[in-house]
Amino acid sequence: MPLVVQKYGGTSVGDAERIATVARRVVETRKAGNDVIVVVSAMGQTTDELIQLATTISSQPGGREMDMLLTAGERISMALLAMAIKDMGVEAASLTGSQAGILTDSSHGEAKITAIRGDRVRQYLDEGLVVIVAGFQGVDPESRDVTTLGRGGSDTTAVALAAVLGADVCEIYTDVDGVFTADPRVVGTARKLDEVSYEDMLELAGAGTGVLMARSVEFARRYGIPLHVRSSFHNGVGTWIKEKAMEETVITGIAQDTSAAKVTVQGVPDQPGIAAGLFGALAAEDVDVDMIVQNVSTEGHTDISFTVAKEHLDKAKSAAEAIMPELGAVGLDVDPEIAKVSLVGAGMRNHPGVAADMFKVLAERDINISMISTSAIRVSCVIDSGRSDEAVRALHDYYLPAEANA
Ligand code: ADP
Ligand code: ASP
Ligand code: MG
Predict the structure, then answer these.
(1) Which residues, listed in sequence order, are joined to residue 356 by a DSSP beta bridge?
(2) How far is the CA of 262 from the centre of ligand 2 (A)?
(3) Is the pTM of this model over 0.85?
């Protein structure tokens, strides 16, 4: 029997009526002759509300208790959905990530899946049940504590289960019709893409396109699982993510990311070993650094700027401050008001000049670029976060104009 994995995001299970709609779709899929695994997110804004609640109770809630709290969100939706499906006459059982055998490392809040023991899910499927798994969570087998996989992690739960259990397709149901050329809530003329390659989707997700978590795309690519990103509100075809996409445009999409902050270490001596010392100290504290720029040297001194996720900012600041005397640095500056805007598309490999045009479009609007980074299929600029939406719209008008889509 074909195996389908369906993942429903927060808005899609946001209230009782929506849960009933999801249940109907699951029941239809089951009755059409498929085995079905369903992965659910927490209802609506539950995760944000729980984080907010924790911060009003404690200034340092701690990773273990935070994960205990946040995993509760997905538990609510999984149980409610199981009840709704059973009421429609189809047998179903819900499982937490831990019960479903999702094993992770010990990094609370950003745990990585290390293995999945799929036997319990498999057994339930063999018994004819629809299996509902709580998204975004697992268990560290050493400490036996529950962990979470990071924001948006239910996508990763779904794709990882699809990979391990050999699903024929993994459907990601969300609150938009698919993957668009830019966030449709920001760019009115953004259009839905019919197909996107794993390669482009990985870069888009990594550059801040929140519709899929980047790690889920990595799993899908590694195990060759086709993903279908589609709306939970209607039956229309969404976007297929697979090895090769039919469309070969220069730019596939435009992403923006306001989740990072910029740190500048000022006045370090321009000599060998300085960057190694600074980034070694950050790595020792598990701080992920994204972009790095070293400024032009004046009188033997230079500034080094880098970006880190806002959640890592405190760690990054203390690690940098601790190593500054040793490096001979004179100051430290932090700017959280930044945005990274990125053009993504495998087609740019054969089109020189993409970056130059991007800089021109931003310059015409007097938008200052403070950092630049590129990969073979991406160009990213860091700008002031207040100009981010405007920059994305301008770049979209230039590279993906509405009339070309007609
Ligand atoms: P879910 O709760 O279903 O996981 P998310 O909020 O994580 O939903 O992701 C869906 C949202 O991603 C959309 O509502 C949309 O605003 C945003 N988004 C950003 N960029 C894009 C894009 N290029 N295409 C589609 N959606 C995008
Ligand atoms: N509920 C979690 C979050 O809001 C996981 C998810 O929705 O994917 O990040
Ligand atoms: Mg999501």
Answers:
(1) none
(2) 26
(3) yes
